[in-house]
Amino acid sequence: MDKSLLLGLPVLLYCFRVLSGSFRHRDNAVSEVIIEEDDYSDVQVVQCRMCHLQFPGEKCSRGRGICTATTEEACTVARIFKKDGAPWLTFMGCLKNCANVKNIKWSVYLVTFKCCRGYDLCNEKL
């Protein structure tokens, strides 16, 4: 396993958060959703499967659990594939401003993110 690429995984996640707009300043936001206290009954709370590291053919080896997505978050599954299409690594959890992306090049790997928010643990089946 290429440890330097594995150590670069947090950098990759940071880049996706920046690209998806989760670090944009409130002053520059075009539109914001304002939730009043009376509207909390309409906010859907979604629980997501969480696993920080899962290699092909193995169970979750780090960070297994459940996270609760806030109103700005969604459940996500990220898969990293080798260029030949062979799976290399999977991670799941809650991600702010999640965006579906497919086959983004990252060094010698391809990265795919899938997001959902329809029901609890929806990212188990993605």
SS element count, helices: 2
Which CATH class applies here?
Mainly Beta
Number of strands: 6
Radius of gyration: 16 Å
Task: Based on Cα principal axes, name the global outline.
Answer: globular
Q: What strand order characterises the main sheet?
A: 2-1-4-3-6-5
The structural class is mainly beta
- In the CATH scheme, what's the topology name? CD59
Give the CATH architecture.
Ribbon
Tally of domains:
1
Low-confidence stretches: 14-41
Distance between the termini: 25 Å
Q: Quote the average pLDDT.
A: 78
Give helix and strand order, one letter per element, not per position.
HHEEEEEE
Q: What about the largest sheet?
A: 6 strands, antiparallel
Give the helix level as a range of percent. 10-25%
Strand content: 35-45%
Domain UPAR/Ly6: 46-124
Pfam family, one: UPAR_LY6
Organism: Prolemur simus (Greater bamboo lemur)
Keywords: Signal
How would you portray this structure in words?
There is one protein chain. The chain has 126 residues and is mainly beta. Helix content is 13%, strand content 38%. The chain has helices spanning 3-7, 9-20, and strands at residues 46-54, 65-69, 73-82, 87-96, 101-106, 109-116. Strand 3 (73-82) and strand 4 (87-96) form a beta hairpin. Residues 1-21 form the signal peptide. This is Prostate and testis expressed 1. Residues 46-124 form the UPAR/Ly6 domain.
